[in-house]
């Protein structure tokens, strides 16, 4: 993913740093593509991948909402523990 953040790349270049067979690596890419995080297209004999920025924005929005909810729960827990400690 970090490599694709720099720009689109062929599957073979993406797979190079990993110690796995190309078909296995391609399976991982298919999962990411099915999730909508990446898109790919055939160019000649190569398959090129790119990030789908909109999906990352959606994920970031969701994570921010969840972070806020978790912070609120921790604040309530802290208040509860403070009150319980005073009793």
UniProtKB/TrEMBL annotation:
Pfam families: HTH_5. GO terms for molecular function: DNA-binding transcription factor activity. This is HTH arsR-type domain-containing protein. Residues 1-71 form the HTH arsR-type domain. InterPro entries: ArsR-like_HTH, HTH_ArsR_DNA-bd_dom, WH-like_DNA-bd_sf, WH_DNA-bd_sf.
């Amino acid at each position: 993913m970090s490599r694709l953040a720099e720009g689109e790349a062929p599957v073979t270049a993406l797979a190079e740093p990993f110690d796995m067979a190309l078909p296995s690596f391609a399976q991982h890419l298919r999962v990411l593509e099915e999730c909508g995080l990446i898109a790919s297209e055939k160019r000649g004999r190569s398959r090129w991948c790119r990030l789908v920025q909109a999906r990352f924005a959606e994920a970031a929005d969701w994570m921010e909402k969840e972070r806020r909810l978790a912070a609120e729960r921790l604040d309530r827990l802290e208040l509860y523990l403070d009150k319980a400690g005073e009793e």
